[in-house]
Amino acid sequence: MSQTHPPRIAIYPGSFDPLTSGHVDIIERGARIFDSIIVAILANVEKKPLFTENERVSIIRDVFKQTTNVQVETFDGLLVDYAQRKKASVLVRGLRAVSDFEYEFQMALMNRHLAPGIETVFMMPDEKYTYISSRLIKEVFMLGGAIDGLVPPIVEDKLKRKQAGKKSR
Ligand code: PNS
Q1: I need a surface site. Which of 74, 133, 145, 156 has the fewest CB within 10 A?
Q2: What is the spatial order of strands in the sheet that 90-94 belongs to?
Q3: pTM
């Protein structure tokens, strides 16, 4: 017996400043499971990002230009309100290590309190990415360390351009 269900739309929210290979791994896994996955970049945060919202959108769109069920958008306000507007039933979050768990657990339960119909699904990236974070990538790069393989080539390229722009000023 065949059953039809509405398209299963997932949201993968985050700052993505910048996109790392760990994020890419999670997005690819999500795209295989869900009918579509929306990478939702948090906009209008107070902290000063390295990449503008537009830069982050264009980087992620470029990396996933061949994957038709991956969309990239920005959002502000409550994540669950955005998810409801997009008719998404799932929030995807990556879990790298136990240290991520407490914060993620709090967010998942708060989001469930706010919107009981939306489920948070945790996914583990390949273990080779478990130690990567956007914050560490920025720090290591700025201090001259190698980050190849830890971010998509386009991100490394853009980081180098930003650094070259700073030096020539
Ligand atoms: O990449 P990050 O910083 O781990 O992502 C955090 C994010 C964007 C998922 C979280 O800050 C968020 O959902 N912000 C939107 C505002 C909101 O809904 N806050 C309540 C979350 S329980």
Answers
A1: 145
A2: 70-75, 36-42, 9-14, 90-94, 119-123
A3: 0.95
